[in-house]
Amino acid sequence: AQKITQTQPGMFVQEKEAVTLDCTYDTSDQSYGLFWYKQPSSGEMIFLIYQGSYDEQNATEGRYSLNFQKARKSANLVISASQLGDSAMYFCAMREPTGGNQFYFGTGTSLTVIP
Amino acid sequence: DAGVIQSPRHEVTEMGQEVTLRCKPISGHNSLFWYRQTMMRGLELLIYFNNNVPIDDSGMPEDRFSAKMPNASFSTLKIQPSEPRDSAVYFCASSFYPGQGIEQYFGPGTRLTVT
């Protein structure tokens, strides 16, 4: 089974609108971390936001928030007030203690912001 | 603080040649990851180290690939002999182990082209 599933290969959003990028995960560990990364066309991988499995509040970082639904094993990224610079690939990742704290990445979602 | 340093940033080589990619993790980090990214296969984990010890090399595609981490501040990924299908962007990332809440910091990547 895939550890991280991102079912949206590509998404479009109008500038200034909000968009949700989906991510589901699979783990049997109780303690784990969830991360989102952004990869613009320039290629670098940029860390956006983190959610711990024991965190009761959804993580927020500026215009980014993580909609964490533990029972459903989902960790969706919400980008509010989209900007043209948000056009990029977005990767969901999980880190779990089993196996030496390995990171697992999803296949990514390509987001295009339309002016 | 300097981030993860990778060299070279670009490498063009002929099929059959040996290629060595280098990585210097962030000082104090004791977990290091090598990834390969292509359009066809996405982001693939090749190998990762904790405290300079290889933990999982199941992602290394073939015996032509080898990775070493002789000390906490240096790692190499070697391909010998190289083939055109090895053309990809190779990322090195570092983090702290253990620590589910610690994100990975990625280097800028090495773009490898094998002709």
Give an account of the 3D structure.
The complex is a heterodimer of chains A (115) and B (115). By secondary structure, chain A is mainly β. Chain A is 3% helix and 50% strand. Chain A has one helix and twelve strands, in the order ββββββββββαββ. Chain A has one helix at residues 98-101, and strands spanning 4-5, 10-14, 19-21, 24-25, 33-39, 46-52, 60-61, 64-69, 74-79, 88-95, 103-105, 109-114. Chain A is globular. Chain A starts with a strand and ends with a strand. With 115 residues, chain B is mostly beta strands. Chain B has no helices and eleven strands. In chain B, strands 2, 4, 5, 6, 9, 10 and 11 form a seven-stranded mixed sheet that branches. In chain B, strands 1-3-8-7 form a four-stranded antiparallel sheet, with no helix packed on it. In chain B, a hairpin with a 3-residue loop joins β4 (31-38) and β5 (42-50).
Give a short synopsis of this structure.
The complex is a heterodimer of chains A (115) and B (115). Chain A is mainly beta. Helix content of chain A is 3%, strand content 50%.
Strand and helix layout:
The complex is a heterodimer of chains A (115) and B (115).
Chain A (H helix, E strand, L loop, with lengths): L3 E2 L4 E5 L4 E3 L2 E2 L7 E7 L6 E7 L7 E2 L2 E6 L4 E6 L8 E8 L2 H4 L1 E3 L3 E6 L1
Parallel strand pairs in A: 2-12
Antiparallel strand pairs in A: 1-4, 3-9, 5-6, 5-10, 7-8, 8-9, 10-11, 10-12
Chain B lengths: L4 E3 L2 E4 L5 E6 L6 E8 L3 E9 L2 E4 L8 E7 L2 E6 L8 E8 L9 E2 L3 E5 L1
Parallel strand pairs in B: 2-11
Antiparallel strand pairs in B: 1-3, 3-8, 4-5, 4-9, 5-6, 7-8, 9-10, 9-11
